[in-house]
Amino acid sequence: MEIRNYQSSDEQGWVRCRVLSFLDTAYFDNVLKEKEQYENPAIELVAIEDGQIVGLLDIEYELQEGTVCSRGTGLGGMIWHIAVHPDYRRRAIASELLRKGEELARKEKLNRLEAWTRDDQWVHTWYEKNGFQQVDSYLHVYLEGETELKGNISSTLPKLYPVLSFAHYGGNQKDNIKKRFKRVHDCICFEKIL
To answer: Which SUPFAM superfamilies match (predicted)?
Structure first.
């Protein structure tokens, strides 16, 4: 396996790897049609095996404190994407991508990495095994259909009827929200001090 910097010619393989990697996670519907471009500098790595992209890591990082990460002090980096093609999992590819990403982050004088993920326990376990700690959370709430939307989401425009809404909930009634709506995910922040 080779780990190298992402190149623009990798985009199709990057997108395919990301889509397949996310299908069996709580982010199954977060489908991208093209690779994201970042406002700030980024560490963008791919893992290549058998002539295809089998893993990826994108870390957008700060040149000024507080411009990318949501917490902490000093310069940090946000892991926007870390993924391994399902056929290549359990071969330490994600850990190798992270190790290389951390090495490059230290060269950029970053003091921490931050990553937000949803409620997949196997993902949480991976972050914890790699030295991250859970430091924050809120809920992703999907409201769908008349029963869930009524009284919660409405439109002031005539003839515009919401059918689906996505919301963030950061209050202290999380259990109530989870009971009230069918699709709710914990969105959890993991942080690693470098």
So the answer is: Acyl-CoA N-acyltransferases (Nat) (SSF55729)
